[in-house]
Design a protein that fits this description.
The chain is mainly α and 111 residues long. Helices cover 68% and strands 0% of the residues.
Length: 111
């Protein structure tokens, strides 16, 4: 029996990969889950992401698991801003926000 070749995941990222996969399943699943179950998975994944250093292997996991990538970005926002968002998208969002603020400031104020 031949096994399909696979890229080895470093041992220190196996738990991150497992939780990232589980979070994606919870996000897109049709089954019912409790808030506690969801919260537990997010908290465990948050703890694991806080322990690991950025690396190409971690980036590959985040690229494959959007919910984990969003969590990673939120956890690191205070240090790196939208660290996983393409620069063009981030810049466009900032420009739209500035335009909206400008329009809001131009509105007449009621007393």
């Amino acid at each position: 029996m031949n096994a399909a070749p696979s890229k080895a995941i470093p041992d220190h990222l196996v738990v991150v990969l497992t939780l990232a996969h589980l979070l994606d399943r919870l996000e897109h699943g049709r089954g019912r889950i409790s808030a506690d179950q969801y919260r537990t998975v997010v908290q465990r994944l948050s703890d694991e992401l806080a322990r690991v250093a950025p690396s190409p292997a971690l980036q590959a996991i985040l690229d494959a698991h959007p919910a984990a990538a969003e969590l990673y970005e939120n956890l690191n926002y205070r240090h790196a801003g939208l660290c996983r968002s393409p620069l063009e998208r981030s810049l466009a969002a900032e420009l739209r926000a500035r335009e909206a603020i400008g329009r809001a400031q131009a509105l007449p104020r009621s007393a």
